[in-house]
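Late entry, pyridoxal-5'-phosphate complex.
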Amino acid sequence: MVDLKGQYNDIKDVVNPSIHEVIETTAFINGPKVHEFQKNLEEYLGVKHVIPCANGTDALQIAMMGLGLKPGDEVITADFTFAATVEVIALLQLTPVLVDVNPDDFNINIEAIKKAITPKTKAIVPVHLFGQCADMEAIMNIAEEHNLFVIEDNAQAIGATYTYKNGKKVKVGTIGDVGATSFFPSKNLGCYGDGGAIFTNNDDLAHTIRGIVNHGMYERYHHDVVGVNSRLDSIQAAVLNAKLPHLDRYNERRNLAATKYDKALKNIDGIITPFRSGEADNHVFHQYTLQIKGIDRDALVKHLNENDIPCGVYYPIPLHRQKAYLDERYNEADFEVTNQLVKEVISLPMHTELDDEQIEHITSTIINFING
Ligand SMILES: *Cc1c(COP(=O)(O)O)cnc(C)c1O
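Prediction complete; structure with ligand written out below:
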């Protein structure tokens, strides 16, 4: 699904000495590379504060802790996402409220959010799924009207731009009260292990979060709040410093590959190519996900695998039907879109090293399967 080796070969001359420097200086934790990466990412995103941490799941959890959410507070998020989003809500003893998504861009549905709001609702967590930014202007309006926090799960969309109706552009993840991202190796900006970060423009929140990631310490050995231990290590920061200058180019390459897939597949019966909302840079194609209608998905997966083409089904089960997140207040009729998507989605290989020959092989294999 991804070609991390090809991408590494391209930046090896920068990455290797930088990793080596960390080892030579033995500044493995909180070294200068971490601070450098924090500054670089703040500048890239145009955000006041970046707080690096250990992974994307921690980033989400710490963001929620920083906002002071309390057990019983309701947090609305999408039913169609990776489990980490809802997991941290439940872990903090907040109440997850899963809602349906849009049939076109697969992101959280605005009407469904409105319907789910109760006096206990405290936050909304939009996920910019597969690299496509959610409808942030509408979400921010709802949040303002009901006095809710917005936590952006930006694990799949780092580098994506959001274009406001008035034309103003900002980086995704910097619009809500706080954003959380992951540097898992296969993400659009991946390190060589685990990593994550939290972003915010709020000075007080940034201060609170900097303490939380470090055992609740604001002054050495004074533990003012219950915190966690969540750090980005210096070797990962060295990798990320080497890769960040390439992120826009990486995302452009993903976009180009997506356009080539679109061209080959858009007029094929039974295939719906990914919807792009807004401008070209509003989608960074973490995944290239087709919706297939009237085609046997299991047989297609098998056929692709037999032709040495990896593919993935993200996600095969809606979160509201996962054992850990069952809730008697859910009504199947409210999850019509997610229930359909889990049966119809299939994601094709997507990475920065895809070439025309590979795309041609993948798309012709799909078309041959459909034409039987
Ligand atoms: C990857 C991912 C996460 C979690 O990131 P980790 O670094 O693996 O903890 C959270 N949310 C979404 C939508 C993701 O894709």
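Residues 82 and 315 are 7 Å apart (CA to CA). Will revisit in the morning.
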